[in-house]
Structures are given as C-alpha cells and as structure tokens.
Design goal:
- The chain is an alpha/beta fold and 793 residues long.
- 24% of the residues lie in helices and 17% in strands.
- The strands form 7 sheets. The protein has a 7-stranded mixed β-sheet. A 6-stranded mixed beta barrel has the order 24-28-25-27-26-29. The protein has a 5-stranded parallel β-sheet with strand order 10-9-8-16-17.
- Strand 16, helix 15 (410-423) and strand 17 form a beta-alpha-beta unit.
- Helix 10 (259-272) runs antiparallel to helix 13 and helix 10 (259-272) packs parallel to helix 15.
- Residues 54, 151, 153-154, 173-174, 401-402, 406, 482-485, 488-489, 509-512, 514, 526, 529, 562, 677, 684-687, 748-749, 760-761, 764, 783 line the site of one ligand MGD.
- Molybdenum atom binds next to loops.
Length: 793
C-alpha cells in the first residue's frame, strides 16, 4: 500500500488519540518486542558504551543485545537522569554498525589512487606491508617522514611516539576566532572563555553569533530551553534562519563574513555611550596599561623586554600604569594604586597614553553607519542589540566554530569579541562569559593516570602546518590517515589531491569506506565503539562524568579495535613490552594512578557496578570559567593589547577585509554567491552519510533562496552545478527561504558517492592569511570565504 502524506498524518493522529484514550503513552520501548515473547534459548544481555565525541555528545548508552546482535540502544541511566541523552544518530547505530559501507577486512589497493579498486588481504599481510614500507621510508628520510592525520573520534594516544612521527598539529580548523580571542586570556586557541551550558540559565542576555547549538550541540537543547524559560533573552545573529534562530527571541540576519565589522561597531557604541564597566575594566584588564604612542610598545619598569617569569604575582619587568591619585607612573601591580583609565601625557619627551585611550582613538574609524552598512543590520537594531548586551548583566556571547570562525579575518573578530566582553565586565562572572562553546568542550575535567612509554621514544615536531604541505617543502613521504581526514580537513581539494598523490605510502584506518580511504595503499578495518575483543575497551572523561566502554558485541567482520591496532604498531616498532597488555589493564591503570580528587573513589569495579557511568566528584555546580579573574597571561589580567602583532597593525583589532567573499571583489561578477557549509543534526561531519535510517531524512542538497533560484531558472529538485575557478560539484537543489539571498548553503561532509558529482571541497577556499603564521594556531582554513556560481546541470 502506498501511503500519501495526508493519510500518513491522519494515521499518526489516530494512533496518538488511541494511545491517549487507553491511558498509555507511545514509547520507544514498544519497538523492542517484550522479552517473554522470545524463542527459547535466546540470550539477552545489557552492556554500556559511549558514543561519539565530535558532535559534543559523548552520550553514554545502554545497549540491549540479543543473540549477539544489538537490538536496542537507549540513553544510559546517568546518576542525574536529566543528563541522560541520545539522538537520532545514536539510535540509528542499531542499523548503521551493520552498514554495507563497513570495511570488512584489511584491503590492498590495486587500482590508481582514488579509483577505488581494492582486494581483501589478511591482517598479517597488511601489517607486513605497513611495517616494510614505513620502515623503509623512515630509514631513508628520517622518522619524521611519516605523518599521522587523525580525526578526533579515534583513540591512538601513543602512535606518534611509537613511530617517532609527525602529527597534524596545526590544521587550521576551529581556531579562527580562538587565534584572536585567546591571547587575551592566555588560552590554547579555541576560544574557550565561557562557562558550562548549565550556567546559561543564569545569563540575562545571550548573543548567539554564527552558532547553531540546537543542531550542533543537540544534547544541550534542554539547557538552552531552560534558559529561555528562566527569562534569558536569546538573540541569534546569523545570515541564515537557522534552527536556533527559529527558537530565539530575536533573529538578526547579518551579511556573511562581516562579524568583524559587527563587533568593531559594537565596541564603538559601548565606548561612545559609556556603556562599559569602568570598575571591572580597571581591575581586570590591561586597558589602563601605558604605551608609547610612537612605537606602540607597552611601558615596563625597565626597558621593553617582557618578564622572563610568567608569574603574575611576581613579574620581573611589570607593565606600567598612571596612578589616578597623584599622576605618578607605577608598576601595574603596586598595592593600593588605582590606575587611570584614560590619558595622554609626556614622560621624558616620550608621548605616552593608556591602551584604553588608544582603543578609543582607533575605534573612531568604526562608526555605527560604517558597521551597519557593512553588516546589513539596520542602525536601529544595531543600537538596541548593543545596548541590551552592554547594559543587561550578566550577558554572554556564544560564538560558533562553523560560522564566523571560518573566514580569513576571523582572528580580528575574535580579538574584538574579547575586548567587547571585557569592556562590559562579562568575563569570569556567573551567567556571563564569551567564546566558543560546543557540548562537552567546556565542563569540569579530571586528569586520568598517564601511562608513559620510555622517554627514548620521542615524537617528531611538525614545523609545517598540514594544510601547507602542498605548498611548502617538507619531509613528509607517508601518511597514516585515521578517519576521513584527507577529504575533510583541507579546502581546495584538487590542489590537496596532488600532494596526496605525491606521497609514497598511505595507510587508511576507519570503520567505514569514507572518501579518504580511496587514496590509501593499505586500509585497516576498525571496530565501532560497540565492538570489542575483550570485556572492557576504553574510558573517557566528558560532560562532568567518567564513562566506560564495555564490550557490547564481538568485533564485526574482521575488524580490530583501535587499541589492538595501536598495540600491533607498538609490537612491530619495538615498543610492545612497554605498551599495556590489554585495554582493560590500561583502563584500570588510568583510574588507579590518577591523583585527581575529582576521581576519588571511582574505580573500574565501581564503574562496572554503576552502569559504566559515574559523576566526577564535586561537579554539582556548573563549571565556571575564570571566576577568580586570574588569567594565564603575563600580567594575570585580560591582556587586550597584542604587542606581538603590532608589525601587522593588529595590536588592537584593525579592520581587514575578507579574502574572497566580499562585495568589492571583482570576482563577484563571475561568482556572485557566497557559499557557507554549516553542520547538520543528521550527521557528524562525514559520519552517518551511509546510515540508511538517516538517509530517509536527509540527502545531499544545495540550498538556495527562491529569488536566486528564479533568476537562474532553477526549480526544486533540479540537479545543479556549483563551480568556481578551483573546481565544481553537482547535486540536487532545494529552494529554501531560510537561506539568505546572495548566499547558498550546503551541509559539509557528504561523501562523493552520494553526490551527483564531485565534493564540496572542490570549490572551498584554502587561502592562508600571512598574519596567521604569527597567531597561536597558524592560519585558519577559510572554508566559508568562498564565492561560487550555480547553474542547472
Ligand atoms: N550534529 C552535529 N554536531 C556537531 C558537529 C557535527 O558535524 N554534527 N560538529 C561539531 C564541530 S567539529 C563543530 S566545529 C561545531 C560547529 O558548531 P556551530 O558553530 O554551531 O556550526 P555551524 O552549524 O556550522 O554554523 C553555525 C551557524 O553559522 C552560520 N553562519 C555561516 N556563515 C556565517 C557568518 O559569516 N557569520 C555568522 N554570524 N554566522 C554564519 C550558519 O548559518 C550556522 O547557522 O559543531 C559541532 N557539533
Ligand atoms: N568545506 C568544509 N570542510 C570542513 C568544515 C567546513 O566548515 N567546511 N569544517 C571542518 C571542521 S570544523 C571539522 S572539525 C572537520 C571534521 O572532519 P573530521 O575530523 O574528518 O570529522 P569526521 O567526519 O567526524 O571524521 C571522523 C572519522 O573517524 C571515523 N571514526 C569514528 N569513530 C571512530 C573510532 O572509534 N575509531 C576510528 N579509528 N575511527 C572512527 C569516522 O568513520 C570518520 O571517518 O571538518 C572540517 N571540514
Ligand atoms: S551522535 Fe547523538 S547519540 Fe551519539 S554522542 Fe552525539 S548526540 Fe549523543
Ligand atoms: Mo570542528
């Protein structure tokens, strides 16, 4: 029988009414036939594991196994039921782990790279070849000629050390904002200045900029709605009408790539209207520090050299401020001195001013009309939004990694964000904060006991960022690609592939035959996190909890666990005797040897007894960032002036245009559409493209506004070609008013085989900003800074 949508909806209503009338709620439990009905001899057991990390989820799962096959996946019973989560992707693993795309045996490539011709081989043969080829390459070119490219889902803590290899440390991903945001706090470069999501209920206002947590941090949806119910006003600033925009109090559409202008404009308004928190700024930031007007250098007690000792309590060469009481110049940390915030004066013939005064002068360029025109946000909305953010406390800026981050000038945006949040006194306060946030990345953490290999096994440094290997001379001759890294981690695929093809040997390690595997010489099949050859497979600390990975089912096909594969590398590279014997031994060691009080009382036995999940000790309150207002900078304050970037004119955020997708670019005539590639709740990047339950809801489509479709004579469902000078791809198109006119959108990660032709990476921009090499994490890959044209294929 074919069911039309109408009858389907009617049927749905009838079922719901029936369930309500009989007093019963429809429950997913009804999917699993009751156990009494099972045939005699059927075995059933429950086991626990954790799911993926890259969605921020880390869901701990309770799995029912019947006769060796997974029959039901449910959220685990977390100590606090409110934390128990699973999403459609997790549930779909019942089917997905048995996908036809699973790599079933080790494979050897027999065709050209990329052609997809492989033959099955044994593990013995696969590892013999790997050992022989990698050792040959290392003997000839040095150990650092092997590069490990690794997706975050995979767990190979020792492989780099075992092989003495390089790792793709600098990969230009998710660091655009952090590069400019973090120096102010002394952070690691990913923009972490926020508290945990449980603190969002305490915010009065949240500016959600270029972030779509209702899809990209699905597990946190309940906390976001809690905040809304508690009265938090959420304003989403996004070029497209995103899922999160649709649930926000206000959506402010912004022209793509103009977040830098947005925040610069906001800073100007805050300064002009005295909406800043003077007391906070004086106490906690470097804005009162004195600088030489001519050279732009900060004044120190003795000359210009920075303190050798990074200790805010006892800096060797402290910064200087102007004592507001008597106008004398003092070290910033002199007891009892209240520094002046503003001022310009002379010391010994030298013109000197406070950083705050310099900022005020510089910001004159970034007027309301300038910012409003460039961002496309009406002046009235701009002022109202800024005033609300600046004058309602506490206020929070949540800035994503997928929107404003992936532009070549994102570091300037990040710098402006941290200045804005500091001026308004919102960093290190309950309910406040600013920065990037996804799921577990900001929560309480605990250090597990560290298993150590002998010090003689050393890793090789990675002098050249991985995205630059195709452009800069380097020593890499072989790659171990763990996950879909070749396909996902680089813009401008056609250039990237030339480099990949030049490599002498590639090992691919994955559960699924992702596009990257096509380029490998030897492919190894890995177990999913549900499969294991022993009773315990691993451990992780995430979302304020410790989680255990138990064996749910035996390894499928001929796959090995990541642990087994790493152990085999260890054995063959002479490290075997120092490597843990079993995964269970390793897990027990990590717990036993930990000295972290948050892990006290948490043993392997206790974890097994508690469904494989226990809460870290003392995490009742949400993790709050920097509440002691001591930052990991030289002065211990929010250091908002970046002296090291003065040669680039970026000691204070100075507007610089985008690399490609901006109006004044001549290329706009040829390629008028900006292409953004957000993430979707249906996938984790390239993962789940092959999951047929998910495929029912999402197929590869390019989304375009009906206005832009009409001018190109495109109709819903047409196959379109998206192209620019770098390359092209083809897929169906979908007309969607949620997409901003002048821009198109397609979720990133889709495997080539599910496209009509090509990959989105064929067109994405890989330009690297020269300034980037002086930033914390190297240049960002500006995936969104991409112009294209679309036509009917
Ligand atoms: N389900 C799921 N969750 C995930 C992931 C996943 O693959 N799937 N991936 C995880 C990872 S690694 C990451 S990096 C995060 C990313 O998490 P988010 O930052 O939330 O990522 P996106 O959804 O890609 O982008 C957020 C929003 O930015 C908007 N945007 C695009 N261009 C611009 C712009 O120029 N300015 C502004 N202001 N907005 C813009 C997009 O329309 C989109 O709504 O998600 C994580 N969570
Ligand atoms: N055009 C464009 N490209 C982008 C982006 C963009 O915005 N635009 N965003 C970028 C961003 S933010 C990110 S973070 C990257 C993400 O790109 P990737 O880091 O490649 O992320 P995933 O696609 O999640 O890859 C995870 C891989 O690991 C495998 N895997 C999963 N679990 C396990 C396991 O337990 N063991 C092993 N061995 N393997 C496992 C999966 O099968 C999959 O192949 O993509 C980037 N690429
Ligand atoms: S994919 Fe879904 S179930 Fe799996 S960890 Fe992420 S949010 Fe949780
Ligand atoms: Mo990411």
């Amino acid at each position: 029988m074919s069911i039309s949508r109408r009858t389907f909806i009617k049927g749905g209503v009838a079922t719901t009414l029936l369930a309500a009338a009989s007093g019963g709620m429809m429950s997913y439990k009804s999917w699993l036939h009751p156990v009494e009905a099972l045939a005699e001899g059927t075995t059933e057991r429950v086991a626990h594991t954790f799911h993926q990390a890259h969605c921020g989820g880390h869901c701990s799962l309770k799995c029912t196994v019947r006769d060796g096959r997974i029959a039901l996946i449910e959220p685990n019973d977390w100590p606090n039921p409110y934390m128990s989560t699973v999403c459609l992707k997790g549930i779909s693993e019942i089917q997905h782990i048995y996908s036809i795309e699973r790599i079933q045996t080790p494979l050897r490539r027999v065709g050209e790279r990329g052609e997809g011709k492989f033959v099955p081989i044994t593990w013995q043969e696969a590892f013999n070849t790997i050992e022989q080829e990698l050792k040959k390459i290392q003997e000839k070119n040095g150990k650092d000629s092997v590069l490990i490219g690794q997706a975050p889902e995979a767990n190979y803590p020792f492989l780099q050390q075992i092989l003495g290899a390089q790792k793709d440390g600098k990969r230009g991903i998710d660091i655009g904002i952090g590069n400019g945001f973090d120096p102010a706090l002394g952070g690691v470069g990913y923009g972490f200045g926020q508290s945990e999501i449980r603190d969002w209920v305490n915010a009065s206002v949240i500016l959600n900029v270029g972030s779509n947590p209702l899809e990209t941090s699905l597990i946190d949806a309940r906390h976001i709605f809690d905040a809304k119910e508690a009265g938090t006003k959420i304003i989403t600033i996004d070029p497209h009408f995103s899922t999160t925009a649709s649930k926000s109090d206000q959506w402010i559409p912004i022209k793509p790539g103009t977040d830098c202008e947005l925040f610069l404009g906001m800073i100007s308004l805050v300064l002009e209207n005295n909406w800043y928190d003077k007391e906070y700024v004086i106490a906690n930031t470097s804005l009162p520090f004195l600088m030489d007007v001519e050279t732009g250098k900060l004044l120190r007690e003795r000359g210009e050299a920075p303190s050798e000792k990074k200790d805010s309590k006892d800096p060797l060469n402290p910064f200087m401020v102007l004592d507001s009481e008597n106008g004398s110049v003092k070290a910033y940390n002199t007891k009892g001195v209240t520094p002046a915030l503003e001022g310009e004066f002379e010391i010994g013939g030298r013109k000197v001013q406070t950083v705050f005064s310099a900022l005020k002068a510089q910001q004159k360029k970034y007027s309301l009309s300038w910012a409003s025109e460039r961002t496309g946000i009406a002046q009235d909305d701009f002022v109202k939004m800024t005033k609300l953010y600046a004058t309602t406390k506490p206020a929070l800026i949540n800035i994503g990694w997928g929107g404003a981050d992936k532009w070549s000038n994102a570091d300037i945006t990040g710098h402006a964000v941290v200045i804005l949040a500091s001026l308004t006194g919102n960093i290190g306060v309950k309910g406040g904060g600013a920065g990037c946030y996804i799921g577990n990345y900001v929560s309480h953490s605990a250090a597990l006991g560290a298993w150590k290999l002998p010090a003689k096994f050393t890793t090789a440094p990675s002098p050249i960022p991985v995205y630059d290997m195709r452009y800069q001379n380097n020593n890499v001759k072989a790659m171990i690609a763990i996950g879909d890294t070749i396909h996902m981690h680089y813009g401008n695929m056609n250039t990237q592939l030339k480099w990949v093809e030049s490599l002498e040997f590639i090992v691919g390690i994955d559960m699924y035959f992702t596009p990257s595997m096509n380029y490998a010489d030897i492919v190894l099949p890995v177990c999913t996190k549900f499969e294991c050859d022993e009773e315990v497979g691993g451990l992780k600390v995430a979302r304020n909890h410790v989680m255990l990975r138990e064996k749910v089912i035996d390894p499928l096909f001929e796959s090995w666990t990541d642990f087994q594969i790493e152990r085999e590398f260890a054995r063959r590279w002479g490290v075997g005797e120092f490597y843990p014997g079993t995964a269970e031994q390793y897990v027990a060691y990590q717990l036993e040897k930990s000295t972290d009080p948050k892990l006290s009382g948490i043993t392997l036995a206790a974890l097994k007894k508690n469904n494989g999940i226990m809460q870290l000790v003392g995490c009742e309150q949400p993790y709050r960032a920097y509440t002691n207002k001591v930052f990991k900078t030289e002065s211990g304050k929010l250091q908002l002036y970046y002296e090291n970037l003065s040669s680039f004119g970026q000691a204070l955020p100075t507007f610089e245009g985008q690399n490609e997708a901006f109006d004044e670019n001549k290329l706009v005539e040829k390629y008028p559409l900006q292409f953004s590639q957000p993430r979707t709740k249906y996938h984790i990047h390239s993962q789940f493209c092959d999951a047929s339950w998910i495929q029912q809801y999402y197929e590869a489509v390019l989304e375009i506004n009906p206005v832009d479709a009409k001018s190109r004579n495109l109709h819903q469902g047409d196959v379109v070609e998206v192209f620019n000078d770098r390359g092209k791809f083809k897929c169906h198109c979908q007309l969607n008013e949620a997409v901003r006119p002048g821009a198109i959108r397609m979720y990133e990660g889709m495997w080539e085989k599910y496209m009509k032709e090509g990959s989105i990476q064929n067109v994405t921009n890989d330009a690297r900003n020269r300034r980037g090499y002086n930033l914390v994490n190297g240049p960002v890959v500006p995936f969104n800074d991409t112009l294209v044209q679309v036509r009917k294929a």
